[in-house]
Amino acid sequence: MPLVRAHRRSFRARGDLVGTAQKAAAIMIVIASAWASAIVAGPAWAGKPAPAPAPPPGPEAALEFLRGQIGPVGFIDSYVEDKTDDSYTYDNALAVAAFVVGKDLASAARILDAFRLVGPEPGGGFVHRYHASDGRPDGRLYAGANAYLLHAINLYFQVSGDPTYTHLAEGIAEFLLSLQDSGDGGIFGYPGAVWKSTENNLGVV
């Protein structure tokens, strides 16, 4: 089956996966840049005109914002304003891709080291959420989050040539294969699920 063959090769950093990760990284940089711009501009004070907006920060400002969100274990703190330390695997994957595209391999490796530290669940996948402060898992084994993490590892490997995390990629690929429907080839949302998501399946391909 084409999907099975594709995933057995996926940890080798195939070009189509890299293209997906690069696009995701570009989106991440734009979002982070807008967020950083809002923080720089600050709120308008009541009864006074709002100050002139600061020039929009460039990609480096966005990357610096992301660096500031990396917690002690290496995971990204996903939100600024929610007063939690929730760290979503999807967000970490996009941050890795953004750092790779931004030529900051050290920051990308810090995040991937966090995944290596906590280790995968039995079967090779990672849960969709962790705590940025201590790396505790607090989530479920979703297909989509693991697909994007696999893209990020593949991109890191192709750009850096560093094979440190390829064993994680191989495990994620096997986990995704375990979710494949033997009938139509689609990927179920998580172990034991009876539904399939278009978004998840597009992310896996």
Brief characterization of the structure:
The protein has 205 residues and is mainly α.
What does it look like?
This protein is mainly alpha-helical and 205 residues long. 53% of the residues lie in helices and 3% in strands. The chain is built from 8 helices and 2 strands. It has helices at 2-8, 15-41, 59-68, 89-101, 105-118, 143-160, 166-178, 198-204, and strands spanning 86-88, 129-131. A two-stranded antiparallel sheet has the order 1-2. Helix 4 (89-101) runs antiparallel to helix 5. The radius of gyration is 18 Å and the shape is globular. 41% of the residues are buried. The model is unreliable at 1-18 (pLDDT under 50).
Question: Which short descriptors sum up this protein?
Answer:
single chain, 205 residues, mainly alpha, two-stranded antiparallel ribbon, 8 helices, 53% helix, disordered N terminus
